[in-house]
C-alpha cells in the first residue's frame, strides 16, 4: 500500500531522483525520461477523458492504470535482481498487450478501410486521442532507446507500441466511426 503523507522530500533539489530500487540518478537520465513520458501520457489521457463516456471512457481509465504499471516497471532497473527484491517489482505482462490488440480489432471491425492518411482532428475527443498517440510514440522511442543501453522489459515496449495504434483506431471511432475523419490531401495547397 502506498502512503503519501508528505509530498515534497527535498531529495531531488540537487537534480537527482530515486528509482524504484532506491538507486539515485540524474533527473535527466534516459530511464527517468522514459517513465516520465509515460506519466505525461497518463495526464494527456486525463484531458481526453473530459470528452469521453461509456466504453471509451472505461477503456481509457484501464489504460491510465496500465500506465502506472508501466511507470513502476520502467523505474525499476536490473530485472535480474527481481527475485531478490523485498517486494516483487511490478512488470508489464503480455496479457496487457493482448487486451489492447483485442480492443483494437473490435474497434477496427466497425471502420471502413482508410484510403488516405488521417490528419489529427475532427471531434474534440479524436483530437485529444491523436495527442495521446504522439506522446505514446515518444514514450516508446525513449523506452526503445533505453533498451539499447539498459535492460527493459520487452512487454513494456510492446505495450507502448500497441498503445499508439490503439489511440489511432480510437480516434477514428471518436470521429463518428471514421465518417468525420479529416483526410490528408497530398499537395492540396501547392
UniProtKB/TrEMBL annotation:
Q: What class of enzyme is it?
A: transferase
Superkingdom, natural source = Bacteria
Pathway in which this enzyme or protein is active: Cofactor biosynthesis; adenosylcobalamin biosynthesis; adenosylcobalamin from cob(II)yrinate a,c-diamide: step 2/7
What Pfam families does the record tag this protein with?
Answer: Cob_adeno_trans (PF01923)
| EC number(s) given by UniProt | 2.5.1.17
What Gene Ontology cellular component terms go with this record?
Answer: cytoplasm
Annotated keywords: ATP-binding, Cobalamin biosynthesis, Cytoplasm, Nucleotide-binding, Transferase
The answer on whether this UniProt entry bears the keyword ATP-binding reads: yes
Q: Which InterPro entries match?
A: CblAdoTrfase-like (IPR016030), CblAdoTrfase-like_sf (IPR036451), PduO-typ (IPR029499)
Where can this protein be found? Cytoplasm
Q: Which reaction does it catalyse?
A: 2 cob(II)yrinate a,c diamide + reduced [electron-transfer flavoprotein] + 2 ATP = 2 adenosylcob(III)yrinate a,c-diamide + 2 triphosphate + oxidized [electron-transfer flavoprotein] + 3 H(+); 2 cob(II)alamin + reduced [electron-transfer flavoprotein] + 2 ATP = 2 adenosylcob(III)alamin + 2 triphosphate + oxidized [electron-transfer flavoprotein] + 3 H(+)
Predominantly, its location class is cytoplasm
Q: Which GO terms describe its molecular function?
A: ATP binding; corrinoid adenosyltransferase activity
Residue ranges occupied by any Cobalamin adenosyltransferase-like domain in the UniProt entry: 7-174
Under the heading NCBIfam families, the entry gives: PduO_Nterm (TIGR00636)
Write the protein's name. Answer: Corrinoid adenosyltransferase
